[in-house]
Amino acid sequence: MEAKGVESCNNNKSKANKMKRKEKLEKKKAMDELIKVASAEKNHLSAFRHYQKNGLSACLESGTGDKLSSSLKHYIQNLLKANMEGAYGTEWPVEEKVKRREMVASEARYIFVYEALDANASELLPMSEHEGTSASCVEERRSMLGFVHFRFVVEEDLPVLYVYELQLEPRAQGKGLGKFLMQLIELIAHKNHMGAVVLTVQKANLVAMNFYTSKMRYVISTISPSKVDPWLGTQKSYEILCKSFSNDAKAILEGP
Q1: Nearest one of 220, 189, 187 to 203, comparing CA atoms
Q2: Which of 44, 84, 82, 83 is nearest to 61 (CA)?
Q3: 3-state class of 170 per DSSP?
Q4: DSSP 3-state assignment of 56?
Q5: Would you tell me how many other CB atoms lie within 10 Å of the CB of residue 154?
Q6: Which of 187, 195, 111 is nearest to 160 (CA)?
Q7: For FRET with 208, which of 8, 109, 165, 183 sits at 20 to 30 Å CA-CA?
Q8: Does residue 220 contact residue 241 with C-beta atoms inside 8 Å?
Q9: What is the mean pLDDT of each run of 10 residues along the chain (256 residues)?
């Protein structure tokens, strides 16, 4: 009887382990499907395509890393260097090579911001309000004002939208455009059932750090080096920030 009891207990443990493995596999399959569906969408700008505020008129276009024209690649490289070389310091030559590879990856999704020739909106207008009454973004656009590079990825077994870059021209900064783009990113994350928006910020970039933590209410994530290992964190030049949209994501990425 004693041996049978042990055998029964082992069988129960085996069944429980099989159930856990099955649940884990099903969860992974569901997450992979979410990422696949979100990444398959080529245009995430169906809701908003125009911005006009604080004397700035802009129109937005979608793009993917594997479809960038040579002129867009050149523009991205130049703006990254102008905006980020100072924040990275001596790390920039190595980081620049990494960013050049990242920007043309098939997983890379873009929002390109162009200065608009003719935008009639007083604030942020849905695309439907422009249809039939104003020119398309292609017809309206002239010089570029910046871009957002983002991807749909899995972090800590959670589907998240990861912002790789948000870069604006100096003349477009301080006019609410960055906040609008981040709000748009959060809408895209919600629409595609992502658990959070995650991004990396250089510690030396105090303006960006203040923007994300104070204006956008992002917090230092539990996966950031300073939270994983405080000593290691002092050796790293960056922090990982996040904004969670579910209790599960908050518990994992933000902690108690």
Answers
A1: 220
A2: 44
A3: helix
A4: strand
A5: 15
A6: 195
A7: 109
A8: yes
A9: 59 67 78 89 81 93 96 97 96 96 97 79 37 46 91 96 98 96 96 97 96 97 95 93 96 92
